[in-house]
């Protein structure tokens, strides 16, 4: 800015789950610039372009600055907060009176602080009587959550980022950290053990190019391939027998099951040679500290949960858990995906309790000082079921907070028709221009990262502080204050009188966490978090007494005790599921989707506002296709192609590259058009959409 700062403070970045510390330079308490924090245990002085540009995107013409009410012409009129919240309350209450309490639902996010998520979840379900609510974390982390819960007995990613530097063998499955988590990849590059790096991915991604072994498998042959690798590990005698005996159940069934996946047959299915399968099994079997990492290539699949558990099984049978450089490690996506998992009051009763458990409901009622009858006795619907409920007229009102389903939900034209069916749609967002806001009846203007306080929880379970370093524009309010105002207008302010500010909410969360594996009762408030560069859960009051300062790096299961009643982890297996939409003569190409560039984030709601970031990726949608396919349809690099699936059709620029295999193509998810093509299909256990396997036809224009 050219100004000289008069102070600095540190805050956690608000994009991805890495959770980098950023040093914010202030002048008269307002941010005028930032640099990566050098003393922060996560990023050690590094940041990716999104982090560097975090302040720039706050200042944009399409920030939501006033409440907006849809007028009869289909446009929006500015409104006062009083008018907006009266409308919000009148419309939602009248829908509930006519159609029942369950007819109004909410969709939240992994992008707001934990305190706001907890407040929203408590307000919506306990205060407003909503039964159904879910978050956009269903699109990214639901599979990992389900897999961990079933295998470990708790949703517990076991690792710490130091493990990237301490492994001697790393396996990345459906993960491209070079692009998706660039600072974590920098941590890999700091590893001094000359690690073996094995990548399982149908594309030759940037990470695959840097790997020592790339298993370029056919799309969705990952589960069979992981079972074949497991079989080789067992046959070659690399099982840690004492660990398996003492700390797992289901080993015999696992052995029987993987015996069905002989290496020769799986080599044919997967397109990975027998030699490559054996070489990977050898590297894993002989490694001293093996870590296995996965992201959306696994999670966003119709058999994602079982695939994640096949990864977990490998870590368990080789005893690669609870020690430095090990683990079966899901890397989360959004800055606060973990906060959503613990605090959103959607898939779990707030604080990882169970709606169905009377004791848990009693504990939550007591800690929140609310009537136990206000707590639902069942878990609400998942995101896809909420969308189906709208389609079937079971849900008539929807409150969407900091997410953009009209762009990001699978099978987009269907999703938009569904949103238009609603009697009343409220969108609460920092921008009034999102694809979803265009469908809204009411837009509530929200403050952004940097304009409010709270905590994010990163992939390695670290609670870190974000801080108010800028003023929200116009009349925009923090989500926390919007929830306070909603409570007042709804007539339940008294019920939420404890929720005075984010730190008060954090104290409530601490009490709710007591005696859970994610206990944080030992954290002494926000200042303590700030002093320590964030604190990983668990951090109990007993920990606080024993240690002067929290461990900087803390991994789970070092005692080999898991969270099932018998203290053991479960080795979970399943049959292979047929691909829901295989290619055929009419749609001969398999479309893969994923992150495109380091500088893009999700639906580009924020990153498109930075002129710097926009220069770092193509502004028009593009599709990666193999040179053989380009030749056969007569298309040169950069020329337009039409891409058609059974659900929609779009124009994109051809990027002709050998990094995808023939009859496969890749489109980044960041472009609005991409989900016109995707298939509405879900993992049956996690209800996560299967974004990465849609059959398409590609033609010259
Ligand atoms: Fe922010 Fe993630 Fe980039 Fe770090 S890697 S600066 S947390 S977007």
TrEMBL record:
InterPro entries named in the record: Asp_de-COase-like_dom_sf (IPR009010), CT_Nitrate-R-NapA-like (IPR041957), MoPterin_dinucl-bd_dom (IPR006657), Mopterin_OxRdtase (IPR006656), Mopterin_OxRdtase_4Fe-4S_dom (IPR006963), Mopterin_OxRdtase_prok_CS (IPR006655), MopterinOxRdtase_cofactor_BS (IPR027467), Prok_molybdopt-oxidoreductase (IPR050123)
Residues covered by the 4Fe-4S Mo/W bis-MGD-type domain: 6-62
SMART domains, per database record: Molybdop_Fe4S4
Record-listed E.C. numbers: 1.7.99.4
Recorded GO MF terms: 4 iron, 4 sulfur cluster binding; metal ion binding; molybdopterin cofactor binding; oxidoreductase activity
GO biological process terms held by the UniProt record: cellular respiration; nitrate assimilation
Superkingdom, natural source: Bacteria
GO CC aspect terms: membrane
Keywords for the protein's UniProt record, in alphabetical order: 4Fe-4S, Iron, Iron-sulfur, Metal-binding, Molybdenum, Nitrate assimilation, Oxidoreductase
CDD domains to which the protein is assigned, alphabetical: MopB_CT_Nitrate-R-NapA-like, MopB_Nitrate-R-NapA-like
Enzyme class: oxidoreductase
Cofactor(s) named in the record: Mo-bis(molybdopterin guanine dinucleotide); [4Fe-4S] cluster
Family label: Belongs to the prokaryotic molybdopterin-containing oxidoreductase family. NasA/NapA/NarB subfamily.
The protein's name: Nitrate reductase
Annotated gene: narB
């Amino acid at each position: 800015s050219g100004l000289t700062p008069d102070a600095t403070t540190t805050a956690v970045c608000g994009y991805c789950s890495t959770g980098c510390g950023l040093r914010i330079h202030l002048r008269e308490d307002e941010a005028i610039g930032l640099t990566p924090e050098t003393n922060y245990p996560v990023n050690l002085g590094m940041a990716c372009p999104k982090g560097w540009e975090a302040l720039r995107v706050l200042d944009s013409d399409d920030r939501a600055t006033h409440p907006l009410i849809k007028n009869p012409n289909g446009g929006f009129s500015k409104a006062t907060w009083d008018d907006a919240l009266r409308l919000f309350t009148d419309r939602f209450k009248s829908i509930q009176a006519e159609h029942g309490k369950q007819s109004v639902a909410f969709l939240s996010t992994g992008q707001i602080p934990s305190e706001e998520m907890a407040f929203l979840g408590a307000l919506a379900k306990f205060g407003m009587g909503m039964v159904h609510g879910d978050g956009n974390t269903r699109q990214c982390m639901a599979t990992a959550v389900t897999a961990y819960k079933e295998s470990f007995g708790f949703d517990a990613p076991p690792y710490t980022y130091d493990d990237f530097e301490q492994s001697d063998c790393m396996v990345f499955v459906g993960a491209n950290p070079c692009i998706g988590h660039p600072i974590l990849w920098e941590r890999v590059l700091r590893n001094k053990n000359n690690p073996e790096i094995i990548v399982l991915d149908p594309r030759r991604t940037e990470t695959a190019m840097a790997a020592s072994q790339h298993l370029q498998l056919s799309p969705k042959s990952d589960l069979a391939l992981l079972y074949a690798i497991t079989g080789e590990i067992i046959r070659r005698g690399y099982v840690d027998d004492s660990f398996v005996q003492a700390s797992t159940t289901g080993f015999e069934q696992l052995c029987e099951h993987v015996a069905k996946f002989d290496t020769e047959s799986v080599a044919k299915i997967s397109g990975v040679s027998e030699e490559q399968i054996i070489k990977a099994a050898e590297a894993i079997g002989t490694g001293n500290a093996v870590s296995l990492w996965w992201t959306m290539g696994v999670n966003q699949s119709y058999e994602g949960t079982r695939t994640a558990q096949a990864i977990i099984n490998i870590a368990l049978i080789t005893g690669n858990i609870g020690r430095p450089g090990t683990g079966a490690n899901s890397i989360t996506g959004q800055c606060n995906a973990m906060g959503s998992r613990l605090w959103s009051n959607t898939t779990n009763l707030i604080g990882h309790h169970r709606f169905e458990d009377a004791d848990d409901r009693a504990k939550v009622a007591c800690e929140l000082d609310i009537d136990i009858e206000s707590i639902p006795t069942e878990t609400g619907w998942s995101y896809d079921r909420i969308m189906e409920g709208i389609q079937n007229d079971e849900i008539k009102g929807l409150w969407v907070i900091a997410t953009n389903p009209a762009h990001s939900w699978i099978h987009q034209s269907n999703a938009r028709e569904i949103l238009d069916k609603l009697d009343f749609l409220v969108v609460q967002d920092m921008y009034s221009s999102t694809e979803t806001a265009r469908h809204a009846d009411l837009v509530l203007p929200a403050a952004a990262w940097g304009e409010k306080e709270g905590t994010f929880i990163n992939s390695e379970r670290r609670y870190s502080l974000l801080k108010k370093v800028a003023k929200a524009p116009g009349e925009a309010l923090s989500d926390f204050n919007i929830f306070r105002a909603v409570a007042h207008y709804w007539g339940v302010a008294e019920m939420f009188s404890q929720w005075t500010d984010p730190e008060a909410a954090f104290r409530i969360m601490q009490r709710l966490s007591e005696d859970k594996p994610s206990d944080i009762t030992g954290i002494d408030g926000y200042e303590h978090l700030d002093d320590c560069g964030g604190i990983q859960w668990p951090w109990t009051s007993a920990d606080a007494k024993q240690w002067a300062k929290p461990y900087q790096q803390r991994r789970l299961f070092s005692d080999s005790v898991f969270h099932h009643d018998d203290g053991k982890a479960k080795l979970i297996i399943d049959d292979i599921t047929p691909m829901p939409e295989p290619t055929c003569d009419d749609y001969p190409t398999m479309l893969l989707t994923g992150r495109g560039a380091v500088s893009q984030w999700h639906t580009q709601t924020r990153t498109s506002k930075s002129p710097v970031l926009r220069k770092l990726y193509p502004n028009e949608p593009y599709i990666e296709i193999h040179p053989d396919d380009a030749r056969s349809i007569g298309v040169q690099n950069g020329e337009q192609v039409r891409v058609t699936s059974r659900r929609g059709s779009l124009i994109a620029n051809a990027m002709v590259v050998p990094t995808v295999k023939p009859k496969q193509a890749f489109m980044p998810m960041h472009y609005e058009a991409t989900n016109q093509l995707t298939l509405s299909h879900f993992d049956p256990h996690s209800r996560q959409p299967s974004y990465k396997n849609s059959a398409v036809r590609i033609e010259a224009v």
